[in-house]
């Protein structure tokens, strides 16, 4: 391994709010904002211990030069943000013997992943310890792909399943099959087939599944009791009419400042609800197998748009919500659709009596919006085969041996031995473990993660917010797909 100049992020970093989330979302403390960021796809929850978080921030911001962790050294050129993320990872020196991991996990997710890396380095005593770098989330994929293109890629990284196809097709990451075979690892022995399929592209395995993070349902038990709704009523939802009847009961029974359902009127979360309902209705994938043709079912897309807009128009979602998770966290919403990554934040919120459940069967199936964090091996010509084998050994161990550690972040661990363990069954996360099988992942198109999805959200937002009628918004929605075909 040649000399590396990259930065390691100390594990106790903070994010003031959920960035998503998994991505895209995170939390801080027990009263801080828990909104999903516009990207909505990485779970980045912050520490629930405000004191230790502030201390970590102060330390990270003040540490301009010098050794920050064994084998890692900031230089005078290192540009470190207040939250400890690094803008120029190439400026930081890492021991030549170490494997360099570029991470997008910040806040609480960063802490949990830091625990996994520390446990691996200490307990496995590997020939090549792992050093973690954390980049600014919004810059992560651009910097990763640029570094690979210029021959400066890291040894290890993270990818959402929704981005994995693009990284594989553009040659940014290595297939893992030879290294898995050398280690005697057959992924289907350790993961659900849906998780294995999600990381298999053109018959080759390009990543190790780490988790599934899905849009699920949360409900406030105290508010439901006030509205005369039992938990059995919630668990027995089997249609859109059932769910809407419960929301109407909340509207009729609860104070006017309590939203029956907390949901933003723009961005990722309403998109995820529309997405889940579209596929529950039997909607076709947005593109054909090679992503050269728009195959969206316009009628089902329109029906799903109309149903959600009806909730806004009927006052079942209060107007002006810009942070749905924070509203629920404050006890001012009866129901919430949000990512699995906010679970831990809610559990650490004093006085919040809640439970969670899988996204409900509203239109005949249990499909839900979901994404997945996966561990990848970017192309790096400096890395030897022996080092590449060590990379794959770490990736598998992080997911399989330490999956239960990762469960603390609120994600659903992908490894069966973690998600079926007694320890996980005692966590609220286990209430939604079936989302591993209900997950409807993004279509495989090289332009989906950025252009297509962003333009689809923009089109839908225009309808939710009343700046376009449904036919105009639907035309824009189809245009977002047509404009981003392969």
Q: How would you characterize the overall build of this protein?
A:
- With 486 residues, the chain is an alpha+beta fold.
- The protein folds into 2 domains: 50-212 and 372-429, 3-Layer(aba) Sandwich (D-Maltodextrin-Binding Protein, domain 2), CATH 3.40.190.10; 216-370 and 442-482, 3-Layer(aba) Sandwich (D-Maltodextrin-Binding Protein, domain 2), CATH 3.40.190.10.
- It has 20 helices and 17 strands.
- Strands 10, 11, 12, 13, 14, 16 and 17 form a 7-stranded mixed sheet that branches. It has a 5-stranded mixed sheet with strand order 5-4-6-15-9. It has a 3-stranded antiparallel sheet with strand order 1-2-3, with no helix packed on it.
- Helix 11 crosses helix 20.
- The model is unreliable at 2-63 (pLDDT under 50).
CATH class of the largest domain: Alpha Beta
Gyration radius from CA atoms, angstroms: 22 Å
**pLDDT < 50 runs, ≥5 residues:** 2-63
Main sheet? 7 strands, mixed
Looking at the structure, the CATH topology of the largest domain is: D-Maltodextrin-Binding Protein, domain 2
Care to count the β-strands?
Answer: 17
Number of domains: 2
What percent of residues are in strands?
5-15%
The structural class is alpha+beta
> So, CATH architecture of the largest domain?
3-Layer(aba) Sandwich
Distinct helical segment count: 20
CATH superfamily of the largest domain: Periplasmic binding protein-like II
**Average residue-wise pLDDT:** 88
Terminus-to-terminus distance: 36 Å
Share of helix, binned: 25-40%
Overall, the morphology is globular
């Amino acid at each position: 391994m040649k000399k590396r100049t990259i930065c390691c992020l100390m594990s106790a970093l903070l994010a003031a709010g959920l960035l998503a989330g998994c991505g895209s979302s995170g939390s801080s403390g027990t009263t801080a904002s828990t909104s999903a960021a516009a990207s909505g796809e990485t779970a980045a929850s912050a520490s629930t211990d405000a004191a230790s978080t502030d201390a970590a921030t102060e330390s990270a911001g003040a540490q301009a030069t010098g050794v920050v962790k064994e084998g890692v050294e900031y230089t005078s050129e290192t540009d470190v943000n207040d939250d400890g993320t690094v803008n120029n990872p190439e400026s930081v020196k890492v021991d030549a013997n170490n494997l360099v991991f570029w991470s997008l996990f910040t806040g609480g997710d960063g802490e949990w992943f830091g625990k996994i890396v520390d446990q691996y380095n200490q307990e496995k005593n590997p020939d090549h310890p792992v050093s973690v770098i954390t980049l600014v989330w919004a810059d992560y994929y651009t910097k990763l792909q640029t570094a690979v293109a210029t021959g400066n890629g890291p040894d290890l990284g993270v990818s959402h399943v929704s981005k994995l196809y693009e990284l594989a097709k553009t040659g940014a990451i290595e297939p893992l099959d030879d290294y898995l075979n050398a280690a005697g690892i057959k992924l289907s022995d350790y993961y659900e087939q849906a998780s294995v399929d999600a990381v298999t592209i053109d018959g080759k395995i390009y990543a190790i599944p780490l988790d599934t993070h899905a849009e699920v349902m949360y409900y406030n038990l105290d508010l439901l009791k006030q509205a005369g709704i039992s938990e059995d009523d919630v668990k027995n939802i089997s249609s859109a009419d059932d769910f809407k009847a419960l929301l109407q009961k909340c509207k009729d029974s609860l104070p006017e400042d309590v939203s029956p359902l907390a949901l933003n009127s723009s961005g990722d979360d309403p998109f995820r609800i529309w997405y889940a309902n579209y596929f529950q209705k039997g909607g076709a994938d947005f593109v054909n197998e090679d992503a050269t043709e728009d195959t969206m079912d316009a009628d089902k897309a329109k029906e799903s748009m109309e149903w959600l807009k009806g909730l806004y128009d009927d006052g079942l979602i209060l107007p002006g919500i810009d942070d749905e998770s924070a509203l629920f966290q404050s006890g001012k919403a009866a129901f919430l659709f949000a990512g699995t990554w906010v679970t831990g934040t809610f559990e650490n919120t004093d006085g919040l009596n809640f439970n969670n459940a899988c996204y409900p069967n509203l239109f005949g199936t249990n499909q839900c919006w979901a994404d997945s964090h996966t561990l990848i091996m970017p192309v790096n010509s400096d890395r030897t085969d022996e080092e590449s084998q060590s990379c794959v050994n770490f990736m598998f161990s992080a997911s399989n041996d330490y999956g239960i550690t990762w469960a603390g972040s609120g994600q659903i661990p992908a490894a069966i031995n973690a998600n079926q363990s007694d320890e996980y069954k005692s966590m609220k996360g286990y209430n939604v473990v079936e989302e591993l099988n209900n997950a409807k992942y993004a279509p495989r198109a090289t332009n989906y993660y950025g252009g297509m999805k962003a333009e689809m959200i923009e089109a839908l937002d225009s309808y939710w917010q009343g700046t376009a009628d449904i036919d105009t918004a639907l035309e824009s929605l189809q245009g977002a797909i047509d404009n981003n075909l392969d």
